[in-house]
Design a protein that fits this description.
The complex is a heterodimer of chains A (363) and B (101). By secondary structure, chain A is of the alpha/beta class. Chain A has helices at 30-47, 65-81, 100-114, 123-127, 131-138, 143-161, 173-186, 189-194, 218-227, 243-258, 262-272, 324-345, 351-359, and strands at 19-20, 27-28, 56-60, 86-93, 118-122, 166-168, 199-201, 208-210, 294-296, 302-304. With 101 residues, chain B is α+β, with helices and mostly antiparallel strands. Chain B has two helices and seven strands. In chain B, strands 2-1-7-5-6 form a five-stranded mixed beta sheet, covered by helices on one side. A two-stranded antiparallel ribbon of chain B has the order 3-4. Chain B is globular, with a radius of gyration of 13 Å. Classes of the chains: A alpha/beta (363), B alpha+beta (101). Chain A: Residues 277-301 are annotated as: Disordered.
């Protein structure tokens, strides 16, 4: 055996390796790592034909590590390979004091650093509710449900406002494997099949969403941000994370420490699931023609058959008569009305004390 | 008795369990030359604010999976992980990757 430094980069064989890639255990130096990581993302973009020249693309930017690295890398690749895309940062202000206001400050610095236009859409403007108000009304437990539904729509609306039909997000391989695992564990086969698509589109919506980091490990994104000294924000959301996803994440991390390739393996499995066509349940009712058929769901929403429907309340594209965001907001408005009555009834109580008491009320 | 002094960094939101401390100098003493594992227990004994958060940092006697460890800016997987023998002046960075992106 020739005497070699054990931790030499396995690609250039000249510099000291600084990291080991989880997907293939290759040891790389900083420069080779940047090169390999960026090139792999470029190859994914090319293979999937994610962009076309002249396309306007909005980067869903939270100020966190994933979206900051996404903005940095897309800028680099756009210049290096002449994609000819116009990149815009699109941020959602959920209205969470001490969390989103700080991370938005990071996005504003990113705007300068990457010289990209920035658009901020707030829940308050769109829905007349901040997340803080929603949580004080409905409790912490369901915060992720509200936030998820509202954010999805907010990103679409923000993009529409900018005349953009394509939103890219920083979802990485860990996130995707987690989602596959969650859908599998919940038996949510309808979502399972589409959960590994790199590009998704709601029926009837003009806006598509892509995940250029679909095959990128969380670890590699964090290391990229660290070695490139990117300016990102890292604090957990003040409200409890979605419990089930947290459990799935811990499970994933434990699996990864035993078998690092398992994250990509789960995505690979997800990509190759082919679900059996579900049998139509024989119903007692007479067959109706497709256009007349409506389904009343357990949550009270009414589904309409034709796609490209619009919500009767807000005009947003929805497969239901009233979109999910409006259903959630309707419920909240009822609670707020009660809050207001209570506030008028006891005018002398200090506001914070009242808030505190109201949080313990149940409706 | 061996004693070394190293610099620790808690990144990626990990500082919340250490009372917001992001950087700290730690002197670790042990019978054998101290390793990252000794440092880990030293940190949980001296810096951890709420002992209930022990599991956030440690799992099965090592650093919890999902926390990235860099020894002088190099992935600890290349340095022998928690068996790495500390040198005076080393910078050991712990970065949580479990937080949202």
């Amino acid at each position: 055996m020739p005497s070699r430094t054990p931790n030499l980069c396995q690609r250039c064989e000249a510099n000291k390796a600084v990291m080991r890639r989880p997907k293939n255990l290759q040891k790389l130096c900083k420069e080779c790592y940047f090169h390999v990581f960026e090139t792999e993302i470029h190859l994914t973009i090319e293979k999937e034909k994610l962009f076309y020249p002249g396309e306007k693309v909005a980067i869903g930017a939270s100020g966190g590590k994933d979206s900051t690295v996404l903005a940095s890398i897309l800028k680099t690749l756009n210049e290096r390979y002449n994609y000819g895309v116009h990149l815009v940062l699109l941020s959602i202000d959920e209205g969470i004091v001490g969390y989103r206001d700080d991370s938005l400050a990071t996005v504003k610095r990113n705007q300068q650093q990457y010289e990209m236009p920035l658009e901020i859409v707030s829940y308050k403007d769109l829905y007349n509710w901040t997340m803080d108000e929603i949580v004080s009304c409905s409790g912490v437990k369901s915060s992720c449900t509200y936030c998820g539904v509202l954010r999805r729509q907010a990103l679409d609306r923000g993009a529409m406002k900018l005349g953009i039909n394509h939103v890219v997000t920083g979802h990485n391989a860990d996130d995707m494997a987690e989602t596959v695992l969650m859908n599998l564990l919940r038996g949510d086969t309808a979502r399972l099949e589409s959960s590994t698509n790199i590009t998704t589109k709601s029926t009837g919506s003009p806006i598509k969403r892509s995940k250029p980091f679909k095959y990128c490990y969380q670890k590699e994104i964090v290391l990229y941000a660290h070695y490139k000294k990117l300016d990102y924000f890292s604090t957990e959301c003040t409200y409890a994370p979605e419990a089930f996803r947290g459990t799935a994440r811990v499970l994933m991390k434990n699996l990864e420490s035993v078998r690092p390739s398992c994250i990509l393996d789960i995505i690979y499995s997800g990509e190759h699931f082919k679900l059996k066509q579900r049998k139509k349940r024989p119903g007692p009712k007479k067959p109706v023609t497709e256009s007349q058929e409506t389904e009343i769901r357990s949550d009270g929403s009414v589904s309409l058959r034709n796609n490209g429907n619009r919500c009767e309340k807000c005009g947003y594209l929805s497969t239901n008569k009233i979109c999910k965001a409006c259903i959630l907001l309707q419920g909240l408005e009822l609670s707020r009305a009660k809050l207001n009555i209570a506030a008028e009834a006891v005018p002398k109580v200090k506001e914070d004390e009242l808030q505190h008491r109201l949080q313990h009320l149940s409706f | 008795m061996h004693s070394v002094t190293v610099k620790c960094e808690f990144l990626g939101g990990l500082d919340v369990i250490f009372g917001g401390v992001r950087k700290s100098e730690c002197t670790v003493a042990a019978q054998e030359p101290p390793t990252v594992k000794d440092l880990m227990y030293h940190i949980t004994e001296t810096l951890l604010v709420d002992k209930k958060d022990f599991d956030v940092f440690v799992e099965d006697g090592t650093i919890r999976p999902g926390i990235l460890v860099l020894i002088n800016d190099t992935d600890w997987e290349l340095e022998g992980e928690d068996e790495y023998v500390l040198q005076d002046g080393d910078v050991i960075a712990f970065t949580s990757t479990l937080h949202g992106g």
